[in-house]
Amino acid sequence: MSALPAGSTIGIVGGGQLGRMLAMAAARLSYKTIILEPAEDCPAAQVANRQIVAAYDDPAALDELAQASDVVTYEFENVPLPAGERLVAHGLLFPPARALEVAQDRLTEKQFLNGIGIETADFVAVDDDAGLGAAIQQFGGRGILKTRRLGYDGKGQRVFRDARDADTAGACAEMGSVPLILEALVPFEREISVIAGRGQDGTIVAFDPAENIHREGILRTSTVPAHVSTEVVETAKAVAGRILEALDYVGVIGVEFFALADGTLKVNEIAPRVHNSGHWTEAACVLSQFELHIRAIAGQALGSTARHSDCLMENLIGDDVLRVPDLLAEPDTLVHLYGKTESRPGRKMGHATRLKRN
């Protein structure tokens, strides 16, 4: 596919804040955007050229999006796989549907990663309470139980730190009686993530790793540079590159790691899209993760991921948005709000990135 000329149209499945920031990046390069999203006046539609108001798996809406777009992408990994495959039939979808298939099921994801020689936490598929009890004993009475599908920001998870038999009774039913996975707890020193991109010609680039702090399962801050060695930085970037190549990927991916005290890295999960822990790039780099993604799927040169500043990105969650006037008064701070009118606990309303010039 040759590079898309200015004025071409990019379709985006999903209308949240990630779709919003992708649409803004596309506009900077003179591309138009169409959003497919069932909620009217969604964050992305506020800055896009057009919105198709329909379910993500609506065949007529998918065909309409494909016919109106020169290329289609998505802002979240839970796009129904049949929808992705329908778009692939038009030859339009980046990243590929295979990335959706891998990332939508935590068991499939870990099997894929292990299959290409990448370490993860130990894991066991769980179908019932008896299987859960056996798996917990296998992991020394400890582990984190997760739904294999869906769940984000700490949802669909339960941690066992010193489980007894009674602790597992009814646990699977409480999780919704859906397929589950138990992961061993990893004694990590810190959590880091790498945002990397791959172009249509196979070129791979990566931003510096961010060090991430989560509370209640939600990302609170990302700090760059991460407090890891140069060797760990290079290893993390190389692992992200290996994943991109194995998936024949085009676009940006987020790869989250557990960093152990001995310098070992284990991949926690992958996200086949732009990622919350990469929001800092819009302030601390010439090229943001959002523009990198648009460049990649449009067949353009990827550009440089070099960083001109150290930084700390903070998510503004729920009533944190009330601090915006004070944040706007801070020097060297970029504030980005998502156009959401209703603030509620746990909802990401925006982010702020504080710069420290190199």
Explain briefly what this protein structure is:
With 358 residues, the protein is α+β, with helices and mostly antiparallel strands. Helix content is 28%, strand content 28%. Strands 9, 10, 11, 12, 13, 14, 15, 16 and 17 form a nine-stranded antiparallel β-sheet that branches. A four-stranded parallel β-sheet has the order 3-2-1-4, with helices on both faces. A four-stranded antiparallel β-sheet has the order 5-8-6-7, with helices on both faces.
Shape: globular
> What is the rounded Rg?
20 Å
Strand runs, count: 17
Query: Biggest β-sheet: count, sense, barrel?
Result: 9 strands, antiparallel
Count of helical regions: 12
Unreliable spans are none
Instruction: Give the end-to-end Cα distance, rounded to a whole number of Å.
Output: 38 Å
Mean pLDDT: 94
Beta content: 25-35%
SSE topology:
Elements: E1 9-13, H1 17-28, E2 32-36, E3 50-52, H2 59-68, E4 71-74, H3 81-89, H4 97-103, H5 106-115, E5 123-126, H6 129-138, E6 143-147, E7 157-160, H7 165-168, H8 171-174, E8 180-183, E9 190-198, E10 204-206, E11 210-215, E12 218-224, H9 230-246, E13 251-259, E14 265-271, H10 281-284, H11 289-297, E15 309-317, H12 324-328, E16 333-337, E17 348-357
Parallel strand pairs: 1-2, 1-4, 2-3
Antiparallel strand pairs: 5-8, 6-7, 6-8, 9-10, 9-11, 9-13, 11-12, 12-15, 13-14, 15-17, 16-17
Helix pairs in contact: 1-11
